[in-house]
Amino acid sequence: MKFGLLFAYQVPPTSGIAWHEPYQDMLSCLPRAEELGYVSAFQASHHVQKDGFCPSPLVAMAGAAAVTKTMRIGTSVLLVALYAPLKLAEDVAVLDNLSRGRFVFGIAPGYVTKEFAAHGVPRDERGPRFEEAIDLMVKAWTSDTFSFDGRFFKIPEAQLTPKPVQRPHPPIWYGVSHPAALKRAAKRRFVQIMSPRHGIAELKEHYSTYENAARAEGFKIPERPIIRQVFVAETTEKAEALAAPAVNYLYRELYGAASAAGDRVLRTDTGQVIANSGDVEFENFKARYIIGNPDFAIRQIKEYERELNPSEMICWMHMPGIRGADAMRSVELFAKEVMPAFR
After folding, report:
1. What letter would DSSP give residue 194?
2. How many Å from the N-terminal Cα to the C-terminal Cα in the chain?
3. In 29, 195, 293, 294, which residue has its Cα 20 to 30 A from 218's Cα atom?
4. β pairing state of 146-149 and 172-174
5. Which parts of the chain have pLDDT scores under 70?
6. Does the predicted TM-score (pTM) go above 0.85?
7. Hey, what domains does the chain have and what are their CATH numbers?
8. Cβ-Cβ contacts under 8 Å for 156 (sequence gap 6 or more)
């Protein structure tokens, strides 16, 4: 199994961390992470959040491209329905050239109501806008000249240059969980990136739907990446002291709040639906994040190997409120004590 890192740059209001610090932490982390054997750096994204959750993932990954040489860099995920698709296709092409063909385009339609309201996009159109935008972008990347006449987007005769380095275009990863969307991912022959908000049992259901659809399409799935919140320290007590407030904040303010608002259901490890974000507790979701000493991390990751057979685990260590130096100690310790068990 390979390992990568995920970034979001969230600054909880009471953390005392300046807005710029998490970005500088990423830029200083990645060259060392590349030396340690991490193979990728991915960018999470949301919009109009109070904590600075990254609203410009392509800009952030341009910075990542500049300080790395071999790592894949990518979005996980960019909310396509909020963007003008031709401009987005241009930006992706430039980023693929900037990184010399190392970019992975992780995408999703989005689900948080206030993000759509703020951008003037009807939330109930997010699915068809998402799919139509992908059609437009792929056409722009793969045609010398093109036009497009869709329900939402109309482009007269045009051309996109530069073309992406990767042909026919950068890999596209779908970050979705609804059965219909999983089936569309397989039909398009795109890789499915599994979200950290779901436990193993839910992920097995998602993989089953996706794999069955892929078999029906004759599509051999090339990769099985998953994202997990991960944090290691010399003792489990120290790891939990540093990381438990971060995952509590993340699950309460994003996943729990969305579940309480009816945007997307969040279930605890026992299957209980979170209807009030105040019900989020560290212990309620403990089975889906990997927070402990190196031996604990190895045991947990081996369970993921048995149950899901992931090709890559993208580790979200730079979580909200965790100082860069503490996150970097986890990055180093994980590489030295955990990663060798999976080579």
Report:
1. B
2. 7
3. 195
4. unpaired
5. none
6. yes
7. 2-235+290-342 (3.20.20.30)
8. 147
